[in-house]
Amino acid sequence: MKDVQNQKDDRNVYLQRVGIRNLSYPITVMDKTNGYQDTVAKINMYVDLPEHFRGTHMSRFVEVLNKYRLGIDPKLIRQMLEELRTKLKASTARVEIEFPYFLVKEAPVSGQKSFLSYTCRIEGQKTFEKYDFLVGVGVPILTLCPCSKEISEYGAHNQRAVAWINIRSRKLVWFEELIEYAEQAASAPVYTILKRSDEKYITERAYENPRFVEDVAREIALKLNADERIFWYRVEVESFESIHAHNAYACVTKYKEE
Amino acid sequence: MKDVQNQKDDRNVYLQRVGIRNLSYPITVMDKTNGYQDTVAKINMYVDLPEHFRGTHMSRFVEVLNKYRLGIDPKLIRQMLEELRTKLKASTARVEIEFPYFLVKEAPVSGQKSFLSYTCRIEGQKTFEKYDFLVGVGVPILTLCPCSKEISEYGAHNQRAVAWINIRSRKLVWFEELIEYAEQAASAPVYTILKRSDEKYITERAYENPRFVEDVAREIALKLNADERIFWYRVEVESFESIHAHNAYACVTKYKEE
Amino acid sequence: MKDVQNQKDDRNVYLQRVGIRNLSYPITVMDKTNGYQDTVAKINMYVDLPEHFRGTHMSRFVEVLNKYRLGIDPKLIRQMLEELRTKLKASTARVEIEFPYFLVKEAPVSGQKSFLSYTCRIEGQKTFEKYDFLVGVGVPILTLCPCSKEISEYGAHNQRAVAWINIRSRKLVWFEELIEYAEQAASAPVYTILKRSDEKYITERAYENPRFVEDVAREIALKLNADERIFWYRVEVESFESIHAHNAYACVTKYKEE
Amino acid sequence: MKDVQNQKDDRNVYLQRVGIRNLSYPITVMDKTNGYQDTVAKINMYVDLPEHFRGTHMSRFVEVLNKYRLGIDPKLIRQMLEELRTKLKASTARVEIEFPYFLVKEAPVSGQKSFLSYTCRIEGQKTFEKYDFLVGVGVPILTLCPCSKEISEYGAHNQRAVAWINIRSRKLVWFEELIEYAEQAASAPVYTILKRSDEKYITERAYENPRFVEDVAREIALKLNADERIFWYRVEVESFESIHAHNAYACVTKYKEE
């Protein structure tokens, strides 16, 4: 059967990325407490395509993924990318994996337990010489507006927000550690179950810790600056302002070695 | 050229709805203040398909829409549905139109003007004897939790929420009127521009008017009960809880004639 | 601590549904082949709220869910709803659960195995006398246009589509059975891995089996009509037309006992 | 009233971007045929925030937008960004605007006219010395698989796809021109109304012009290479594969001056 993808291409256009996108797939990731966690990911996989080939072989991406989906960790991702490079005769291979990741949280006063969902991501890219690996978390938090508190007789507007932290590190950093950085930087963390005693605690804690999105971004940045394993980060905080129908946003990116 | 859609079908399955979905189209709707407003809609259009026809003629839906898109009002929607019934040899025709609709809002203290976007919808359905017409609005609002306020020393969690009102009425009810019902029932309305004096006002107003989603739904219901033009309604309120990553919800549906 | 939710309400508005929405939670569902399958669900839970109560107790929904999340089956859902009714002093309890569900599929010629993701849903509602239970699947399929094939010298436009089947039944019907009904009714099923021999097979099979969305809906309806366990169904087919930027749609609902 | 945002910050963290996101706003953009077109945009606006300020003033973004929203063109965007820099005492200002943009298209044989929606975007960023301006279009197209055509006895799988073109140019390039590049590179363009004669034409044209996503990306790249106004581009093509539930993707980025 003819291999149309393998045809010679004379348009002389190098494609940095060709591959598959938005694949929903069951995977197993590392879990600091329990060893591993089953979840459902959205996956993108790419290689580059030299000028002289017409197309890539899309089915091979999933064949390789099938071998590695049960052990998504930094070392195996590297191996998977190397295998993709070989199987697809490419110089660069890249993968992007995003998935819900659950932690059991205890309510601050009642101690009631429930799961909270965090959006985690892993990105890996490999050439012959270089391996780039990025880890990210999206953490739902509560922000209470310092300006609103200061100028108002009583109350202060507050809202759900999300803090995104993406890092590159020399040693393993757990999702759990990044999540903790984000929750400590917030006016308050959020929970799935809160009894009345907990709700009182969270309400008062948030009022005592007013934070702009700018404050949360900076507080997280200070923690990432102090963590010597991390050499690059991007922090984004977006709050679903309760007094507006649009969002407030703050972002800081830093390559620490500079 | 053969008309495959017109082929006789012997599977004996009547289809209640066949048609087109998720069409993005420029339309003009009625505006209480300015006469009309240009916007961009997502449109679904359907007819029913008798047992003995194999398919409907999808291109005719858009041909009919083209004639009416510049005058989306209750009377013309009725005419459009009647034309769909004829052109597609159907007994029932149906249209669903959803679009952003903008009002100029003045900030409560500074008087600063800005646009706020509301999600409006129109649904019409027509058979030989009956014409059903529904109008809906989605209104962003602020809700402040009465329980949190009551049990906490200071502060109270609050958040962005959305109130959905859908109605059937004997006489024209403007989007603007439904929007006002929703905003009055909230702990506070939301705005696109708020200066500090406005932010103080909204923060304090919300603290003085704590409302569960249940309260907002009921307050809106009271207004709709009192409006004699309206004979059916559904009110839904969903708040993006600032202390959780999930939402709180309340819904009431009423056919007033019963 | 004061229980604001328990306050007497004198607005005299009964709320059909109050509760929580869009909760992301880890659950375990029944799997015909393997016994069970871990997945991640979006969950809505509601009760009704009598006129005389001000609010419901949102944290109790998740407390009940925690007890049942590892055994999502028709019998346990019933028990869970009964417990919700009691715990929340409600007459009606309702749950809606939607999740990705994976099956291993073998490519038709090469036999290569890969996972395909289906969107499954379960809805349960319970009052004192009645228990309503609904099962649904969303199945990605391929449709090839019979009109395009008939009128063209060569080729025929085809596209990804999705078939939604929702049923109520007297006996257990597996997701796997509904998925098979949808895939058999399509021009061809879709797969995650297809080698060239498989791609040839699917391309030719689709060309030999041209189907409008109307055809797919009717073919599925015939199968559901013949399945005596099922007493109600709704079939919806929506195709992402390759020649348009909007979708084609067909829907049939039937209560078979009538 | 105290200005909390203006407080001195001693955390020593510079924020590259602070501002507002996901604002829905009515705007007027340039239209090659009709002079201008009203539409509804999603808008993000940012400035940078020096180490020593605690927060930015979010309301000023919308005040500035209000002055420019009726004339979204490259020159006025530049002026708007300069005004943002001054009003917010920032060194960098940035805006991202995305909106549906409609063209009237004539069906290829019947000549029937209808609107087709394209997703357009504008990004501008300004510092004291530099002004960066980017224009983008998202174009729905049809792709027919060359491999499937080659290996199959009859037929070939095809599907809706979208081509994204983003460019930086020395002179004005109209959305209309980029859209034409994308549609010419596809197996066939898509339309909102197609009569049977048109459907035959499009089906056959697509079969005669099989294109991988890789081919479409390269064909567009050749056109952009030849257009001397353009000095940077990114082309992305993503097809909603009819034989899979995931997508195929190709991307090429080029800075032509290198």
UniProtKB/TrEMBL annotation, chains A, B, C, D:
Transmembrane intervals: none
Keywords from the named record: Hydrolase
Catalytic activity, as annotated: GTP + H2O = 7,8-dihydroneopterin 3'-triphosphate + formate + H(+)
Organism: Pseudothermotoga hypogea DSM 11164 = NBRC 106472
Entry function: Converts GTP to 7,8-dihydroneopterin triphosphate.
Family: Belongs to the GTP cyclohydrolase IV family.
HAMAP family hit by this protein: GTP_cyclohydrol_B
NCBIfam families: PRK13674.1-1
EC number: 3.5.4.16
Name this protein carries in UniProt: GTP cyclohydrolase FolE2
Site positions (May be catalytically important): 145
Domain of life from the UniProt record: Bacteria
BP term (GO), one: tetrahydrofolate biosynthetic process
GO molecular function annotation: GTP cyclohydrolase I activity
Pathway noted in the entry: Cofactor biosynthesis; 7,8-dihydroneopterin triphosphate biosynthesis; 7,8-dihydroneopterin triphosphate from GTP: step 1/1
